[in-house]
Amino acid sequence: MTVQERLEQLRAEIRRHEYLYYVLDQPEISDAEFDGLMRELRELEQAHPEIPVPPDSPTMRVGGAPREGFVKVRHSAPMLSLDNALNEAELRDFDRRVRELLGGEPYQYVAELKLDGLSMAVHYEDGVMRQAVTRGDGIEGEDVTENARTIRTVPLRTKAAPWPRFEVRGEVIMTKAAFERLNREREEQGLPLYANPRNSAAGSLRVLDPSITASRQLEFHAYFLLVDGRYALPSHWQALEKLSELGFRVDPQRRLCRGIEELAAFCREWEEKRDSLPFEIDGVVAKVDSIEQQLRLGWTAKAPRWAIAFKFTPRQAETVLENIEVQVGRTGTLTPVARLRPVVVGGVTVTNATLHNEDYIRELGLMIGDRVVVERSGDVIPRVVRVAEPGRERRPFVMPKECPDCGGPVFRAEGEAAARCINTSCPARLKESILHFCSRGVMDIDGMGDAIVAQLMAAGRLKSIADLYSLTVADLAPLELEGEKARRRLGEKVAARIIANIEASKMKPLSRLIAGLGIPFVGERTAQLLARSFSSLDELMEAGEERLMQVEEVGPKVAASIRRYFAEPHNRELVERLRQAGLNFRSTETAPAAGGPFAGMTFVLTGTLPSMTRDEATRRIEAAGGKVAGSVSRKTSVVVAGAEAGSKLDKARELGIPVWDEAELLRRLGQ
To answer: Fold for domain 602-668?
Structure first.
């Protein structure tokens, strides 16, 4: 047997054992025997560098070098979210709508367990995995191909498929056992614990080092099969069967339900049996089986009319409220947190729960020492929902007048539920403030993630947002990637790339900087309007409330928040340091053209346009003098509708408002 033949034999044998172990849970050999096959393959590949290693070799799962960032990729078709049914009555309402829209013709549902993870699309060419993309905003996601290669239930090569190219969509999850193991390791390393398996899976898939993803033992469960962005087979059930044939893990509990009674019974059955599963589920997904019927049922603006997510009832337990502490968030919001006597809620030990704000505590009549009911809603964030029994030695909670972390003043605006620390450099809010400042859509400093920021803060190199601009390659290169056992350094190449991203952020438009400052109630849209209305950040800083309220969409609450922010000495000091660092303080952003072809017109965008994003369409409309609104009303001039347009299109037709497609929009723009 030649070396080439042995290599191919080993790869085929390892792929078969991976499928048996990771997909079917039916191993035929021991872990030691499997490791022996992998070791032989790896050694043969290394000993014969003249023989190229194919991308679907099992050795490609171990993960390569850390990447510098993630590339955005547009999906072949939108990855839409589902509407929810929170109880059986709402599930039956969904069924009634389906029945009426189909005119009473026969139909059936495919019921699948609703996994609590992160959606991902995996693309194959000639049966070989080529690309994996996260859901993102449903229109664009992030290329996580190298990380996805490390997931054992993502086949690097599928069994024979009838299409040269196809796409598999599914959910990336972390099992309960893997989640517990990860948190034990983090506790031993003195790192903060993850809140739930879903967040852990999402974070593990998006780390820059694929070897970290490989260590997290993620799983991929498939539920959609597409060819050229369209359904591959005439029924959803057939597609699931085909996915199983191709070697993917598909929900083994799935059921074909002939009507609402069978569907409701399936939901009740798995609500009772959910704890028997090795992973978290938070409901059941029901889809009309026939693709032809799905297409006739269509979509609303946000979700398909042929599918619903039935959410399980939140799980509750009683325990004692031992104390209430206050945490400070990114925007300075002080949030009371319940410290509870440990209690198991749905298989998870809960010791903390959110109490939202001071008014919520007052409405519950809650005092420290009370026996309370704790709920895990959606199996994610526990919260206290009511007092079960007043405690014998009760004591009331009082919101502090000074920030518990920096000692700065706490302010609560009239009519607002939240109390806030207004010091941007408050240590408690600093980390989240920095992460927000660096995030996409703000200053877009790719690479400055949670782990890197935490290490820089621990080393004393980040005490303010402005400190980002004094960082050097020498500061970053020795840092370690989050959770990595091998203690691999970030390295000079990646460090230099991050420093370049920091430098490039200095030239971002003024609206990005305003959004990055973390002014309460000032998000991306308001920041853009402010940047259009003021020539510089200095002019904005000195503007009075009356002048601020002349800006479109800025009312008394937002104007007062802006004034309070710039009146705080710590915040003005931050602004001065950013000026010295060389950030752009001048506005180059202009209001919509006053005399363009769309002057005086209000547009609403709905659905997916063929060749441009909604942001790009908005920019073109505004450049032509038009205004883009979020909802349809009698004041709307035109609705621009793309694929899968929903309720906005329906309302436009009802009101007799003109509807354009993308081609008509471009024609009117003269493009």
So the answer is: Rossmann fold (3.40.50)
Predicted local confidence at residue 486, as pLDDT: 45
Contact 607, 583 (CB under 8 A): no
Continuous H helices in 506-605: 510-516, 524-533, 537-542, 545-548, 556-567, 569-581
Q: Which of helix, strand or coil describes residue 506?
A: coil
**Nearest Cα to Cα of residue 571 among 419, 431, 423:** 423
Task: Tell me the one-letter amino acid at 450.
Answer: D
Query: Residue 607 corresponds to which tokens in the numbers above?
Result: 């659905």
Question: What is 510-581's CATH number?
Answer: 1.10.150.20
Domain positions in the chain: 3-62, 84-311, 315-407, 422-505, 510-581, 602-668
pLDDT band at 583 (very low <50, low <70, confident <90, very high): very high
Residue 605's DSSP bridge partners are: 640
Q: Which two tokens stand for residue 332?
A: 């300075």
3-18 vs 31-47: helix crossing angle, rounded to 10: 150
Q: What angle do CA 40, 42, 47 make, to 5 degrees?
A: 95
Question: Is 114 considered catalytic here?
Answer: yes
Q: With left for phi above 0 and alpha for psi between -120 and 50, is residue 607 left, alpha or beta?
A: left
638-641 and 659-660 as β-strands: parallel, antiparallel, unpaired?
A: parallel
Alpha-carbon torsion, ordered 200, 202, 208, 209, to 10 deg: 50
Does the fold of domain 602-668 match that of domain 84-311? no
For residue 379, the model assigns a pLDDT of 46
Q: Is 203 helix (H, G, I), strand (E, B) or coil?
A: helix
CATH assignment of 84-311, given 3.30.470.30, 1.10.275.10, 3.20.20.370, 3.30.365.10? Answer: 3.30.470.30
**DSSP assignment string, 377-443:** ETTTEEEEEEEEE--SS-B-----SB-TTT-PBEE--TT-S-EEE--TT-HHHHHHHHHHHHSTTTT
Q: Within 61-136, where are the H helices? A: 88-101
Contact 466, 544 (CB under 8 A): no
Q: What is the mean pLDDT of the chain?
A: 85
Amino acid at 452: I
Catalytic residue among 114, 242, 287, 648: 114
| Mean pLDDT lowest among 369-378, 430-439, 606-615 | 606-615
Which residues, including other chains, have CB under 8 Å from residue 529's CB and lie 6 or more apart? 551, 552, 553, 554
Q: How confident is the model over 441-451, as pLDDT tens digits? A: 789 898 888 88
pLDDT per residue as tens digits for the range 392-406: 889 999 999 888 888
Q: Quickly count: other Cβ atoms within 10 Å of residue 345's Cβ.
A: 20
What CATH number labels 3-62? 1.10.287.610
Predicted pLDDT at 485: 45
pLDDT digits (tens, 9 = 90+) for 589-609: 766 656 678 888 888 888 777
Q: What is the pLDDT of residue 189?
A: 66
DSSP state, residue 534: -
- Residue the block writes with tokens 């009082």: 398
- Please compute Rg for the chain using Cα positions: 27
Segments of 457-509 assigned E as strands: none
Cα gap 316→414, rounded to integer Å: 34
